[in-house]
Specification:
binds s-citryldethia Coenzyme A, 50% helix, 3-stranded antiparallel β-sheet, Citrate Synthase, domain 1, 2 domains
């Protein structure tokens, strides 16, 4: 029988039930606290608050553990494909060969976007960030599938949206890149697999077919798998909160893309490279930037370092660092930013400021090195994170919408404004 928690407020003691998770994490169920005691809890940033129960991803920040549906991320990154990982996260189990073949084939059939959507790209200013375009385009997809946006979608409806979103996200991203460089759109080829088709749409031209490089495909496979889910992070919590109002999956994902755009979240992979560029331009003066990162008045943070949950190493960062080294070595690429990043990590991890605060490289610290090696432009790095995170967002939205206990998300607050006072007519207000 799970333990109980006794909360003493003044001369009252309130007994609260507790929840215990599969990995023995414990939670105090405060869902009745306000009606029992008139009090609410206060936890800005929700660092101590569970918003839901979920069976999708488990992570232990102290031990650097990350598992998708119980399978260690290291094994998935080594053995799985991005589509198989997406299936595992969304449907809860590894697919049979028949299920995977059918799932994969559906992506080939639905990779193209409606011809009218091309007009959207013509309206966007070239200065528009690809994350803004992606969010707008994903939300606009709902207009082409009105039958899929009604509240209470059937299982078949959700299966259709899953394929539309996961398949078309590549096309939208590649088209936004082509538009930004003034090249004509390159359409998906149905015979190509998920990642090769994306690379084809990004880098082929009417005159020259992109030469699909297996090492590049494998590096992207690892990156997309490692970004696929991360339990209740900022953008996934956003998708769940928007979806809790019965907003459709297209709208919920569009909101998640906007949350991911932030430099403290998915935008960090772009910020890391911009930070390395700044350090390189400044003569590689790493000590200066380490000291700035430690000085809270400098407003400078070591981007790609630190994590709300991982207070040990981020298991994804270790794999990405190794993948970056392997790809650059295989391709004979010398990227000074990789050497700079390695040096920065070594110095930071010997500095008590970072060690005491348990700040380690996170998923964003080395990923940009790989994107650079592939030729993906800097402002599309967060877009690559979004492509990877799509299965996780979808899996959490689906889990939330299928949970009968789900209610519309509506946190409380502690009011700190003015006490009651009357309206002040204009002629009585201070000049
Ligand atoms: C992602 O949640 C997820 O799962 C996210 C993610 C996912 O897969 O979805 O893993 C992806 O978003 C990774 C994080 C990418 N962001 C960055 O790399 C931006 C740089 N990092 C930080 O801004 C910060 O570490 C956060 C935002 C990631 C975490 O912030 P927290 O947990 O709220 O930490 P904090 O701000 O409370 O900092 C604690 C202390 C503070 O110092 P003190 O007030 O104790 O003296 O650590 C310091 C902070 O100033 N600190 C840093 C730092 N990160 C924290 N100091 C310098 N450089 C940093 N990067």
């Amino acid at each position: 029988m799970p333990e109980k928690a006794n909360l003493i407020i003044g001369d009252q003691t309130y007994e609260l039930p507790m929840l215990v998770g599969t990995e023995n994490e414990k939670a105090i169920d405060i869902s009745k606290l306000r009606s029992l005691s008139g009090c609410i809890t206060f936890d800005p940033g929700f660092g101590n608050t569970g918003a839901c129960q979920s069976a999708i991803t488990y992570l232990d920040g102290e031990k650097g553990i990350l598992r998708y549906r119980g399978i260690p991320i290291e094994q998935i990154a080594e053995k799985s494909t991005f589509l198989e990982t997406a299936y595992l996260l969304i449907y809860g189990h590894l697919p049979s060969q028949t299920q995977l073949t059918k799932f994969s084939q559906s992506f080939s059939d639905h990779a193209s976007i409606h011809e009218d959507m091309k007009n959207f790209f013509n309206g966007y200013p070239l200065s528009g960030h690809p994350m803004g375009i992606l969010s707008a385009m994903v939300c606009s997809l709902s207009g082409y599938y009105p039958e899929l946006v009604n509240p209470g979608p059937t299982k078949e409806d959700i299966d259709k949206i899953v394929v539309q979103l996961l398949s078309k996200v590549r096309t939208i991203c590649a088209f936004s890149y082509k538009k930004s460089i003034g090249e004509s759109f390159v359409y998906p080829r149905p015979e190509l697999q998920y990642i090769p088709n994306f690379l084809h749409m990004m880098f082929s031209t009417p005159k020259r077919e992109y030469n699909i490089d297996d090492d590049v495909v494998d590096a992207l496979r690892i990156l997309l798998i490692l970004h696929a889910d991360h339990e209740q992070n900022c953008s996934t919590s956003t998708v769940r909160l928007v979806g809790s109002s019965l907003a459709n999956l297209f709208a919920s994902i569009a909101a998640g893309i906007c949350a991911l755009w932030g430099p403290l979240h998915g935008g960090a992979n772009q910020e890391v490279i911009e930070m390395l560029q700044m350090i390189q331009k400044d003569g590689g003066n790493i000590a200066k930037y380490i000291n700035m990162a430690k000085d809270h008045n400098s407003n400078f943070r070591l981007m790609g370092f630190g994590h709300r949950v991982y207070k040990n190493f981020d298991p994804r960062a270790k794999i990405i660092k190794e993948t970056a080294h392997n790809l650059l070595k295989k391709k004979g690429i010398k990227d000074p930013f990789l050497d700079l990043a390695v040096k920065l990590e070594e110095i930071a991890l010997k500095d008590s400021y970072f060690v005491e605060r348990k700040l380690y490289p996170n998923v964003d610290f080395y990923s940009g090195i790989i994107y650079r090696a592939i030729g993906i432009p800097l402002n599309m790095f967060p877009v690559m994170f979004a492509i990877g995170r799509m299965p996780g967002w979808i899996a959490h939205w689906k889990e939330m919408i299928e949970d009968p206990a789900t209610k519309i998300g509506r946190p409380r607050q502690i009011y700190t404004g003015e006490l009651r006072h009357d309206y002040i007519p204009m002629d009585q207000r201070p000049k």
